[in-house]
Amino acid sequence: MDLSFLPIKYTNAIKNIDINYLYEIRLRTGYAVKVNYNNKNAYLSFYGLTQNCKDAIICSSFDISEIIKNVTEHSLYAFNDRIKEGFITTKHGVRIGIAGECVFCENKIQTIKNFSSLNIRIPHQINGCSSGVIKEIINQGKVNNTLIISPPFLGKTTLLKDIATELNKVVNLPILIIDERGEFNNIEGENIDKITYSNKNYAFNYGLRSLSPSVVITDELSNSEDWLCVKNAVNSGIKIIASCHSDCLENLASKNCFIKNLFDRYIVLSNNGEFGKVEKVFNKELNEV
Q: How far apart are CA 101 and CA 108, in angstroms?
């Protein structure tokens, strides 16, 4: 994983830990640098990890500015469409959430400035993590409409990536990945097309007309408009594999945006700390299978 956009004191510290277990780095101006390492919270010191905040690296405003400059290649303007959405994604798929001062004009967000904190999510490819559910997604050569459900930071995107990789191998169908945040940059294949950094409404309309996919993979259905895009695609005969934030299927089904009978399978991820671990699978009637 390329983390060369970080200041050198951070990259030197990270050399002393196993990056395979590093999932998140949180930077807040004037405070100790926190990390999620092997699903546990710790601080980052100049020599690796520590449980004592007094030994940790203290994030400065200069550190945050340096990271933003490196990721945007010293052109905030070129990345402003992403910045005003609250994140930047590096070319290697590292998503960086941004906090700062929002600038509005006529009730529309123009940009974010005076960045005060960053949440750096470190993506991991867990090859084969979909092996336990791929039979629920592919049934006798046909793809089931599938929704992956969990709270944030439990591996929905990790699982989607592996599903895309497996589908590319075993199903000879055109697959469209709608990658709203640039987190699927390393997922490629002879059957895969990608639309990156687009909202779902535009990507579905443009992608379905222009690329004629049989399967669409997309992350985080977050509102009624996203669900309607999926409904229209399903009604057109396209198979959908997507994810959604919720702590359980019951709570998701109670939301106004939820559309019943849209998905054939609902995959609920475990909250036991193991990324991408499946806990339960439900069918179209919301019964456990």
A: 14
DSSP per residue, the chain = ---TTS-HHHHHHHTTS-GGGEEEEEEETTSBPEEEETTEEEEEETTEEES-GGGBPBP-HHHHHHHHHHHTTT-TGGGHHHHTTTEEE-TTS-EEEEEEEEEEETTEEEEEEEEEEEEEE-----TTTTTTTHHHHEETTEEPPEEEEESTTSSHHHHHHHHHHHHHHH--S-EEEEETTSTTTT---TTEEEEES--HHHHHHHHHHHH--SEEEE----SHHHHHHHHHHHHTT-EEEEEEE-S-HHHHHTSTT--TTS-SEEEEEP-SS-TT-EEEEEETTS-B-
Residue 42, pLDDT score? 98
138-155 burial, b for 16+ CB within 10 Å, e for fewer? Answer: beeeebbbbbbbbeeebb
Residue 197 has phi, psi (to 5 degrees) of 60, 35
pLDDT tens profile 59-102: 999 999 999 999 999 999 999 999 999 999 998 889 999 999 99
Q: Which residues of the chain have pLDDT under 50?
A: none
Could you report the per-residue pLDDT of 29-62, keeping only the tens digit for each? 999 999 999 889 999 999 999 999 999 999 999 9
Percentage of the residues of the chain whose pLDDT score is greater than 90 = 81
